[in-house]
């Protein structure tokens, strides 16, 4: 059996781009390797607006969590596909509103988990936990999350840019349903993902998929909206990510409409 540090090195796959690290590069971060920045540059060469799109999706997360912790009164969050820490992480936004909020972060990239454990520290009143797991294993995620979250009380499940990493053959809709199945009524789903209506983005993702350790699957807005089947959507429904409840004092800059999002409650 290999030494744990060798296992981590093998999982990092620093010779191939990884989505969380490429995303970090596109957001202007430093937690990435040369292969990741090179892959990011390929995307930007083909689709220069992608960095702006990454920022739009990150700001949607902050707006959604503010709504969930504020207006919806949610105090528990299950954040799947955490990504590398940046400004306004889920627990920071939630605990500014409600310090007692409890957050469980889930990712399967060892670099993400190392940084999360070092940087994503909870308020004394609340809690943060970190699960090394893949979205394809909802049973494990739910079992581990139940050690921190109380599943008899509502939970907000956040899934940003994660379902595009699941192929159709892996039945992404069933994975979302499995994760929601253990959450009680009054729980929420906040989800955003890339769409396939822009040819430049389609070419950029095709080039990325040709060299990356994990592929991305763009879908139609209707396919993304189907993840919310059986839930009650919060206004304005499933819309372009930039247009979901934009901040009055900071309207989004116009970008190509290449991702959609929504927030919905389980009845």
TrEMBL record:
Keyword Transferase: yes
Pfam families (alphabetical): Methyltransf_19
Keyword Methyltransferase in record: yes
Top-level taxon of the source organism: Bacteria
InterPro entries membership: SAM-dependent_MTases_sf (IPR029063), SAM_dep_MeTrfase_SAV2177_type (IPR006764)
Any single GO BP term: methylation
Molecular function in Gene Ontology: methyltransferase activity
Keywords recorded for this protein, A-Z: Methyltransferase, Transferase
Protein name: SAM-dependent methyltransferase
Species of provenance: Streptomyces ardesiacus
